[in-house]
Specification:
Length: 537
């Protein structure tokens, strides 16, 4: 419903908004390299299997996931205003990619939709649509972080045991194979690989004790990297002395080993003839909107994780993500979004600036061209150890206690978001949590008085002042207050301080004039516009 509005007198417009860059840091791009470079190695180790896993689950070429990771690191990392968020292929778009490839006839025909989706994101950034990200309640964002932490733990337990039915990066309760999260844990318990679980336990233990030892001062060799190196060393030792306990090849990182020329030849090029297909344009709009929403949510979550509490500009992020998708689609990559798992690992590893995201993208290039055979020695259980610790830090008991102390109106949306994400997937869970959060906001708003009594008790004239915002949510409370007035009384309703009138609420007030006559009520309306007319100032 349209509304009549006016700015409150003497109140300047706020300069804070989705384009506000937050506190300006005087640091240069390379000033924090001692923290950022080691963190980039950790993010690279986490991102590599996730890129491959998302590509595999999407029914796309494996290299398409790595291309998206490279573009998310370098292109989006350079263009983004966020110092800590890391972008790449995300599990949240897997279902869209699988369906989209089938609808348009192949991956080459799918790529123009990725490029067009990126162009749409650029348009949204120019149109300043990043403000959408500011309308998600903090209870839902915190619930999302806690749910991602719990999901990481539950999803990595099978990998830690050597069971790999689900792909790395899967966040759905039911995997593409039809197996749910708890079923996978049950199956993993029945076929534990001793070497895998040893690598995971040693890795977790190492990362727990590492900060309490002098080794924590080794900025260039962080604990997660040590856990991965130790996992590789343990498996090589087992292969030499006890092969029956060694980790199977199926439980190691699997990166294509084709060399530079082979990699270039395997890249898929966009089929521009697919632009004649209407489904490509519909798919592009879907990718642009969903990728934008997921990126804005990841941006909000990363801002909360940032130790320095920097507030990255949302509109600039949409532009950066759009540029990333245009480049990724052009070079045969999957759609790119901000990814909270990689961003969390980045924060946890001690990154300070976006140099970490950029270097992790460069490391992905080096890995594909030069280090594939070495990286294929890394056990997935060693990487699971890194993600298990990251998951715990996202869902610490302190976070739950804090949500509880803020009251049921905060805790219930927080808890519902967690449960919904655990039993559906990330986007559906956030949607359910958002609906519950909005319901609490509406209920709280409806409990507020629509008319504020300002006259003293026993006064001949009952005087009410309208609040700053008179919306359709005020309709019921205003009607109750007016119906409760005694017959033959005198009343004044003052709307001079109200900045916004909804027609719905105005209709209740103006309809009161008719009932007031029949009840012999002497009324006076001050500063309240007639419906359809501009309010007088």
């Amino acid at each position: 419903m349209p509304a009549l509005s006016r700015a409150p007198d003497g109140v300047p417009e706020s300069s804070v908004g989705p384009d506000s860059p937050g506190p300006v840091s005087p640091r240069g791009f390379f000033d924090e390299w001692r923290n950022d470079v080691p963190a980039s190695v950790v993010v690279f180790l986490v991102a590599l299997p996730l890129c491959l896993g998302v590509a595999l689950a999407s029914g796309a070429p494996l290299l398409s996931g790595v291309v998206a990771g490279i573009v998310g690191g370098i292109v989006v990392g350079m263009a983004s205003g966020s110092q800590l968020m890391v972008s790449g292929p995300a599990a949240g778009l897997t279902a869209i990619v699988v369906t989209g490839i089938a609808q348009v006839g192949g991956f080459a025909q799918f790529l123009p939709a990725v490029i067009l989706g990126g162009a749409l994101q650029i348009g949204l950034g120019v149109a300043r649509a990043g403000v959408i990200g500011y309308y998600f309640p903090s209870s839902v964002i915190k619930g999302m972080l806690a749910a991602i932490g719990l999901t990481l733990i539950l999803k990595q337990i099978p990998h830690a045991m050597g069971y790999d039915a689900g792909y790395e990066g899967d966040f759905s309760f039911v995997s593409p194979s039809g197996e749910n999260t708890f079923g996978a844990i049950g199956h993993a318990l029945q076929q534990v690989q001793p070497g895998a679980i040893a690598a995971a336990l040693i890795g977790v233990g190492l990362m727990v004790v590492w900060p309490k030892t002098p080794m924590a001062r080794m900025k260039l060799f962080p604990a997660p990297l040590a856990a991965v190196v130790l996992g590789v060393g343990l498996n090589q030792l087992l292969l030499a002395v006890a092969p029956e306990y060694a980790i199977r090849d199926t439980h190691l990182v699997t990166l294509p080993t084709t060399g530079a020329e082979g990699v270039w030849g395997q890249l898929t090029r966009p089929d521009w003839g697919a632009l004649a297909n209407q489904q490509v344009w519909i798919l592009a709009a879907t990718i642009g909107i969903v990728a934008s929403l997921e990126s804005l949510l990841s941006l909000e979550a990363t801002n909360k994780l940032d130790p320095e509490k920097r507030d990255a500009p949302a509109n600039r992020e949409l532009l950066a993500q759009g540029m990333g998708n245009v480049v990724s689609g052009f070079f045969g990559g999957l759609p790119v979004t901000g990814v909270i798992v990689r961003s969390s690992a980045n924060v946890d590893a001690g990154a300070r600036t976006r140099l970490s995201a950029v270097v992790h993208g460069i490391l992905l290039i080096v890995a594909v061209l030069l280090l594939a055979r070495v990286l294929n020695l890394i056990p997935l259980s060693a990487l699971a150890a890194v993600l298990l610790v990251t998951g715990f830090k996202l869902t610490t008991p302190a976070l739950w206690k804090s949500a509880w102390r803020l009251g049921l109106s905060h805790f219930i949306p927080f808890a519902v978001t967690i449960v919904a994400i655990l039993f559906t997937d990330l986007l559906r869970g956030i949607g359910i949590g958002l609906v519950v959060g909005i319901a609490f906001i509406i209920a709280e708003h409806m409990r507020r008085p629509g008319l504020i009594l300002v006259s003293p008790a026993g006064a001949i004239l009952t005087r009410y002042v309208l609040p700053d915002q008179v919306t359709f949510l005020s309709k019921a409370s205003i009607a109750r207050e007016l119906e409760a007035l005694p017959d033959s009384c005198r009343v004044e309703i003052d709307g001079r301080r109200t900045a916004r009138f909804d027609y719905d609420a105005l209709e209740v007030i103006l309809a009161f004039r008719e009932t007031a006559r029949s009840r012999n009520i002497d009324y006076r309306l001050v500063g309240i516009p007639e419906v359809g007319l501009t309010p007088a100032h």
